[in-house]
Amino acid sequence: MTTKYIVPAPLVEKIETLGLGYPALKLVHGLLLSAHLEVGGNTSLLWRPMSRRSVVRTAFLRAEIGAAREKGNRQIRAALEDPQLKSVFEEIHLLENGRGIVSMFRKDICEVATVRNFDPATNEKHQYALLESANLAACRTATDILLLTRVCMHRRQKYPAFHLFGFQQPEVSPANNRAMNKLAEAQAKLQESVRKAEADPVAWPDVRDKWLGSACRVAKLTGDRFVFVLEEGVSQLGVRRVKVRISNAEAKWKPEVLHRCPAGSRLVEIDSDGHRYLTAERARLRARTSLENGERA
After folding, report:
1. Going residue by residue through the chain (297 aa), what tens digit of pLDDT does each one get?
2. How many CB atoms sit inside 10 A of residue 147's CB?
3. Strand pairing report for 89-94 and 274-278
4. Rounded to 5 degrees, what are φ and ψ at 277?
5. What DSSP line would sit under 163-197, residue for residue?
6. Pair 148, 132: CB distance under 8 Å
């Protein structure tokens, strides 16, 4: 049995920046699911249960986050030890008898959650993540949860794609390296103040295996296929950004677009069976083969 719930896009983006560990991420999602059920799925009212002191049964949380077979509240207690939880909750602790957890989200988190996530004029579907508790329970790492959430936010688009968080490293020209003007300095300071709680960008080789492993596991959960575009800089060595293209029955990608390899980039194709690196030539061959066989990207 699974329960569907919605997380508004601004809240998805905020959670990505907090550096929460695996147990804490599961707990946050479990409490967001509880808030979603309390308002009957009306996300415009999500702020109400989030902004007040609430009690949620630990048995319910354990069942939804995949810890139903555990004795006691081991996973929940591990989550409560995460110091980053203070960036999400104003108050959070277990009842003395362990049968409930008391929580109240921080004001800034509630404000992020109240951002309008559906535009009836355009019928845009990319502004929230539609998740299932069974898939959340199946996640094995924090990276699994973060990637699953992003995929569920974009997979219903016609041309679903997004960039992995933490790799948006700007290309810096030698001229700009030597001297930054006052405007650039002001922009940098503003960006730093906005992103002060965000995780620092990391080198792709350091996290490559965990992202590719998570992509394979998420593909098993959603039935999607992914193409990772490893974008390298012109004047800087290493992967600068990682773009993820999603392929499924609803996507409208043409094979030659799905497997397009921009100059200076590498492609990795991922499905439930594993991952494969594609050179530009192999990517063109893969697209041509799909076209000849009448396959959908």
Report:
1. 789 999 999 999 999 999 999 999 999 999 999 999 999 988 888 999 999 999 999 999 999 999 988 878 999 999 999 999 999 999 999 999 999 999 999 999 999 887 654 555 555 544 789 999 999 999 999 999 999 999 999 999 999 999 998 765 544 444 444 433 444 454 444 444 444 434 445 788 999 999 999 999 999 999 999 999 999 877 667 888 999 999 999 999 998 899 998 888 899 999 999 999 988 788 878 777 765 555 555
2. 25
3. unpaired
4. -80, 140
5. EPTT--PPP--HHHHH---HHHHHHHHHHHHHTTT
6. no
Which pTM value belongs to this model?
0.84
Residues 6+ apart with CB under 8 A from 53: 91, 102, 103, 104
DSSP string for 190-234? HHHHHTTTSPPP--HHHHHHHHHHHHHHHHHHH--EEEEEEEE-S
CA-based nearest residue to 197, from 107, 113, 85, 46: 85
Q: What ranges do the domains of the chain cover?
A: 4-154, 161-169+200-292
DSSP state of 99: S
Asked if 153 contacts 128 with a C-beta cutoff of 8 angstroms, the reply is yes
